[in-house]
Specification:
mainly alpha; 3 helices
Length: about 140
């Protein structure tokens, strides 16, 4: 997994550094959207021995994935807007705009990192739970 960044408050980043970092955020969020869609199809597929317990877990996972899907859309919109503001920022802009950009960055970054942490935990939970519940072909 890509290290997205570490929270910071004691130093400034250049415009170029921020653009690179936020573009990594955008790529990570785009890939995450695709993975969430895959996980939705995965838990809905007929490759599992369905039991009442498994069905209950799948319903729980579907709810988690739906919530994650909503969150990734919100965070993606924030990251895209932030990228545009940084892109439009010129080095001759006053310190107020620079401080605004850095403050916005510090608001978005923890949300993104928390989302990625939650997403990875749910993804791992789904794979760990379903791994031994796949229907095996005869002869394997």
């Amino acid at each position: 997994m890509t290290i997205l960044s570490a929270p910071y408050s004691h130093f400034k980043r250049s415009r170029k550094q921020l653009l690179i970092l936020v573009s990594v955020w955008q790529e990570t969020l785009s890939a995450t959207k695709k993975e969430i869609s895959f996980l939705e199809m995965y838990i809905a597929s007929p490759i599992f021995y369905i039991t009442p317990e498994l069905l209950t877990e799948f319903i729980r996972y579907q709810a988690h994935l739906k919530k994650l899907k909503q969150q990734v859309e919100i965070i993606s919109a924030l990251a895209n807007k932030h990228f545009t503001v940084i892109q439009d920022w010129t080095e001759v802009d006053n310190a107020t705009l620079e401080n605004f950009i850095l403050l916005e960055h510090q608001k978005i970054e923890p949300q993104l990192l928390e989302f990625i942490k939650n997403y990875n935990n749910i993804k791992l939970d789904i794979f760990n739970y379903t791994g031994d519940k796949l229907i095996q072909k005869e002869g394997n």
